[in-house]
Records
---
Amino acid sequence: MPELPEVEALATFLRDKAVGRTFTRVDVVAISALKTFQPPITALYGRTFGAVARHGKFLDITCTAEGEPDVHFVLHLARAGWLRWVENMADTPPRPGKGPLALRVHLGDGIGFNLTEAGTQKRLAAYVVHQPSDVPGVARLGPDPLGDDFTPDRFRQILTAAKRAQLKGVLTEQDRIAGIGNAYSDEILHAAKLSPFKPASGLSDDEVGRLYAAIRDELTEAAKRSAGLAAKELKSDKKTNMAVHGRTGQACPVCGDTVREVSFADKSLQYCATCQTGGKPLADRRLSKLLK
C-alpha cells in the first residue's frame, strides 16, 4: 500500500510532470473506482491541472478554469493501487474488463496516467468534489505526523485517548494519525523497540519519546529517499529499505535475530522478538485459530 512517503513522492512527481497541462478526458474503466457523481467526471474536461497536495494517503489535484470555482480530483490508491505515468497513451478508450486498469487520465499530446489496482479487492477510489473535505476519508483524518501540529504533547494525547488499544492499530488508524500504514508502522515500532501489541496507554515517558522520534525519523528518511524518484521506481525503493516489514525469516539488521510474522485474515505484521518483545515470540493469530 502506498503510504505517506510514497504518496508525497507521487505528489511531487505530478507537480513536475502534470501541472499546467489540460484535462482532455478521463476514462472510467472500473465504475466502482469513481465514488462521486456530482460534479460529474466530465467537469474536469478543459480544466487546468493545478496544485497537487497530499492529505494522509490521499492525493488532491486542484483543477482550475478561468472564471469558475475550482474542483478537486482526489485519489486514494488503497492497498493495491498505483499511478503509472504514460507518454504515448492510446486515444482509443479502453474496454471495461477484469484487468488492473481502473481509470485513465488524458492530459493531451498522448500524455497522462493510468490508475491501476491489482488483486480482487477493488478499493481504489477517485472523487470529484468542490472541497477536499467533501471526501469522508479526508474529513476524518488525524494530524499529519510530519506536520508542525504533530507535537509530542499532541501525540501523548492521542495515545491517552486510545486507552488500551494496541500500538499497531493506533499508528494505522487514519483518524488518529494520517498517512501511516502497515509497512511503516512495522518499521516505526521496530525502530522504537516496542511490541506492536503493547497498549497505547501503558507507555512510559521514555517509550513515548522513542515512539514519537521513530515516527518522525522513519517517515522523514523515507520521504527523503523517495523524493525525485519516478513513479515506477517508488515501490522497489520502499521494499529495499525495509528493516523488518516483508522480511519474514530474514535476519534483523540490528541484532541478527530472525524476523518473525503475525498473520491476520488479510494482512500480516513483521517484528523482531529480540529488539521489540524481550525475546518472546508473539502468538500468530491465524495459527491460533486453526489450533482451537
---
Amino acid sequence: MQQRKLATIEDVAAMAGVSIATVSRAVNEPTKVADATRRRVNEAIARTGYTTNAMARSLRMRRSNMILILAPDVGDPNFSNILVGLETEASKRGYGLLIGNTQNDPSREADYLRFISSNQADGLILFTGHLPFGFRQGPGTMRLPPMVAVNEPVPGGEMPFVGVDNFEGARVAAEHLLSQGHRRIAFIGRARGREINRLREAGYRAALEGAGIAPDPRLVIEGDGTTESGRAATELMFVRDALPSAFLCVNDATAMGVIIALNARRYDLPRQFSVMGFDDISFASFLTPSLTTMKQPRHRMGEAAMELLLALLAGEKPKSPEVLLRAELIVRNSVARHGGS
C-alpha cells in the first residue's frame, strides 16, 4: 500500500488561498492574522492533516500550546462563565485548555501536575486560592510555569490575580441596604480562611461604619458559602433572638438558604426581611422573591486572566500584577424599604 504523502505548508497555503508566510503567522502568531483568514487557514490545516506537523513543531519548541486550569469544583455556578472567557481569549491566541477538577483533593492536584512535568501545559490558571499541592520549592524540584490566580487570590500577593473588587462590591451592597433605611444588617458568611469572605465582610463593615453604625457582632455569622450554611445561619439568628431587618450574604447560594429559611417560617419577603446576595448566578432571578445582588463580570474576568497569562508566557511584564473588576448592583425584588408596607 502506498504511503500517504505528508501535507506541507505549501499545501495549506494553496488550499486557503494565502501565502506561506500567512500560514506561518496563523499557526505561530494567530493574533496578527485577521479572523476570517485565520479560519480559512485552520480549515485548510484540518483538511490536509498538516496539524500533525504543527504539533511536532510545538514539541520541538518544548511548547504544548495548552493551558492547565485547576478548579476545586467545576460545578460552581461562577466557573462556567469565567471558563468561556478563558477559552475565548485562549482560542484567539492558538491555545487550548486542560481542565483539572480537583474537588479539593490534594492527591488530585498532585496528579494534575504531571501535565506540567511532561511539558503538556505551558501555563497554569488557578481557581484554588493556593499553589498546587504536590509542588515543593527548592533546588532540584520541578519548576512551575507562569501562573495567574482567578476569582480567589493566592495569599502572599506575589502571584498575578484577576478577580472582582470584593471589598468595594460588598460596600456598595451594604450601602444599598442602608439607602433603603436598614440599620440592623446581618452579614452571613464570615470565614477567616477565605480571602473573598474576609474582603466582603470588610466592605460590609466599612459601609456601616461610614453611616455611623457600629456592627453588632451578633449579626455576623460564619458560613461556608453553601445554601445550607445560609439556612443554618438564619435559624441561629432566631435562636439568639437578635434579628436584623436585612441580610447581606457572602454569595447567592447563601442568600438562597436565607430565603428558604424565612419562607419556611412564612415571612412576607421583602416586606418583613430584605435579602441581598453577591455573584448574580443563573438562578438568582428565579428565586421568590427574585434576588437583588452584585453581578460579577465573569466573562471579562476569564478574558483578562488569559490575556495576563499569555503576556507572561510571551516574556512580557504585566502592567499590573492585580486586575480588579467592578461588580454591578442588580436590583430585583428581595430588598425593600425598611418599614414599608
---
Amino acid sequence: MGIAARELSLYVIRPTLRYLGQNNPDAEALLLGIAASQSSLGSALHDRRGHGLYCIREASHAALWDRYLAQDPDLASLIRGLASQHAFLCSPHLELTVNLRYATAIAWLLIEQQQVIIPAADDLLGMARIWRQAFEPQGRLRDFTHAWNNFVSPLNHVA
C-alpha cells in the first residue's frame, strides 16, 4: 500500500517545491503523477529501475550532483540541507528511498534540468511526455495516464 495522493501532495511535494522557490500547482501535479507511475505512490520503493518514490536511478542521481548541482553551489547547499547529516555521506542513494523530501527535490531537479515547460495539471499527455523524457525514456504514455487514473485521480476526488 502506498501513500495517499492528497497527503503526499500536501505534506511532501508542496512543501518541498516551496522550499525550492517553486509555488506551482502544475509542478505539484507532475511530481504526483511521476510518483504514481514510478512506484504506485510508494507501494514499491526499490526495484531494478531505481530508488524511492520516484525510482531514481543511481546514475541519474550521481550525474545530477556532478553535472547540474556542482554548477550551482547555492542550490546544492539547499538540496544538501534536505539530506540526513551522516546517512547521506555513507549511502547517498539510500536518501532517495528513506527521505521523501530529498527524493522529491531530486525528482524536481531532474525535471528542471530538462528545461521543459511544465504542462497544466489537467494535461495528462503533456505530463506523461515529461515523465518519459526525464524518468522513463522507454515508457509508454498510457502507462503514465493509467497510473494517474488508478492512483491519483480517485484519491484527489475524495471529499
